[in-house]
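Handoff note, outgoing to incoming analyst
You'll be picking up this chain. Sequence as last confirmed:
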Amino acid sequence: MGYLRLFIILTCILAASQLPAQERGEYIHMDSLINGDWLIEDLEFLREKIFESHPLPGGYAGDSLLESAFEKAIQEAAPGMKYADFIRVVQRTIMTQLDSHTTVDFGNVREKGLLDNKRLTPLQFGFDGQDLWIKSDALDSLPKGTKLLKWNGIDASELIKIPREYAFTEGDAGISRMRVETALLPIIMMMNGITTHTNKLQVILPGDTQIVNKVYPGFLKEAIAKMRSVKKKSPLKEFKDQFSYTYYEDIDLGVLKVGTFVPLNSIQGPNRFYRKTFREIRRNGVKNLAIDLRDNTGGSSANVEFLASFLFEDGHNAPDNIIYRQSELAKQRNRRNSWFIWKAFYKMSQDENVKAFLRADALDEGDIDTVYFKEPVMQKSDYVYDGNCYVFINGLTASAAVDFSGSMRKRGRAMIVGEDCMGSGHGTWGNPVSLYLPKTGLMLSLATIRYNSDRSFDMTREALKPDILVREYADDDAANRDAWIEKMKEVLAGKPH
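Most recent structure output, in case you need it:
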């Protein structure tokens, strides 16, 4: 592929970047009532930046609907409101686009809440549309699979509705949106004051039918920081959490877990890991291989290409093209990637992709161009796997991971196993930049390119659907049972699915 093209594709990373904060006004506490004029100023600033910088401002909905959403938000904000309510209004407004790369930065919201002495619980939840349960507890006081019935008097059925207007998704991905709502629940509970110092819970413990009362603490910033330091992992352990290979001998299935496509600062690195693993897979004659992309929220298209090259004899090219809009924010992102330093080297290259991207970068502000990529990444034949292939996805599979999944299906290489993911597989947005609203200091991520998997420029909103459906329930977590592996046991045994 060559280092020039690798660097260019890395600028198309589909994960949020951190740009220096813009000048912000005075610090606003989360429970403060914010002046309506400030809120309107921030909304108008955000609208201007989206229409300046987003390659298709209206997203899937169209510009007029986005404009209407902003007008509604401005009317709602005019009397003033609390910070948490403003976040809800902003997120609801920009979600008109149905672009998962343009969203409120909830990691920043979490840190702001902790700074404001809000209380957070170290819990992760699961939800199947009916039952809300504990997927993990950093305190190990609530077993996995514990069903939650009430939290401080709020029924679980009502509790799970609260993140609904804060969540984001890509296109018409209903299951995916539900997964995001569930993932955001602890932050939204903190932000809205639902989590207190001592929380009263009604739960049903795994293997039981009786309702029991539990008390669960909410933690301030210092305690959360201490937990993080205790849980901090070495770079090698972090890598092994993201990348692993497991062989299930009873069903002749290898599972290659790829937790992210984001470039990692690791001594081992995914590329060395892929070569070693695929060499082992071929040497052992593994008949069935699953690429596990559950919870993989994307990253670099260069990493998508590299992984896919082990599965296609003629290699893989991703993306086919990107639509690039020149703007102040896009230029900031290019400067952050040291673009100006590399230009001299790019100009010496005869690579058509390099030249196309340079033309895009040289556009006048507001102009749009399409950059095409044609050269596939290829591996030596002794690395390429030609056995049966499956791809595991769930509602949190997003962006570059959806592109990989869609490409595997379009090229007839794999069956998709799991649930609807966050995107159609035809294309997405990317190159998001971080943006602070000047009055409230609210931090957002804003997409600056359209990423297309092929030349159809397909704007299908429908989520990529699995060939083999998997549903996950509280009992699976309680029994430490992987619903995807259980489904594969049925599939490879020839049972109908």
